[in-house]
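Sample entry (312 residues):
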Amino acid sequence: MFTTARTPDTTGRTWGICSRSGIGCSGRTWTPTGWSRTSPSVSGPRRIPSGSCWGCDPGVEPVVTTARPSDRSRGPLLATQVRWWCASLDLEAQAVDRLVRHLSVDERDRAARFHFRRDASRFVVSRAALRIGLADCLGVEPGLIGLRYGPHGKPELAPPFDRFGLRFNVSHSESLGLYAVTRDRRVGVDIERIRPLPDLDEIAERVFSPEERLALRRLPPARRPEGFFNCWTRKEAYVKAIGSGLAHPLTRFTVSLAPGAPARLEHVDDDPDAPERWRLETLVPDPGHVAAIAVEGLTTQIAWDSPPERAA
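Predicted structure, serialized as tokens:
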């Protein structure tokens, strides 16, 4: 993930998060922010609505959910499905305070150590959004869910919650968070704001495959930033899904990148069968962002629902 310079919080470090307990304050409750919606049967980039997963059930034939959240009851997450949602991370201080109660003690401690208020608030909202979505799968309170981290920093459910087979992934780009959860399938997501980069060619030379660099050079100059971030998000989603993160040599596999073209894993140098096992999809949160999801299994269906509101 590319980062931008941070602006210090002029109010100082007293931003109202207690590391040991949630603070009960009045204010608006959090609900993930969604955008325009397209039918999942349509090929091409998917414009993000709100989404979530509600429960787990043994896998059956894949079903694509096309009804609006208000049109259906909370259904189970099938082994052939991915559920995902997007959240705005910039909320008013009162709303952030209301979400602290969903975090673990360790997460509250981590939030208290941020130097900038904005970073701390975004961390609280992001982790609460993740926990609320997972809680609806597991049927427990968000704050009770145990999380642990793999050798490359990928979060996963800790015992006893790991026995349910849920796998999930998270990505952030400034004020937006993207989340996906599956059952017994590896998954990775990444989201980025499309923007000009003065060193775009130098970065591509270091991390893109020869085929990707050629495809990027063939794009009109005005479309190259979008092509660059198409490639970057798809590559990062894939390496996050396989669990190696950026430790995996990014030049050793190739993805599609042309704006408007379907997302595809073209080839992997040391795993020639990988394109037959992995599905890539492009997600478009809004006109200024692009996101990608990588999920194990070509028959996997992508579905969504609106997370329930968690009042204080």
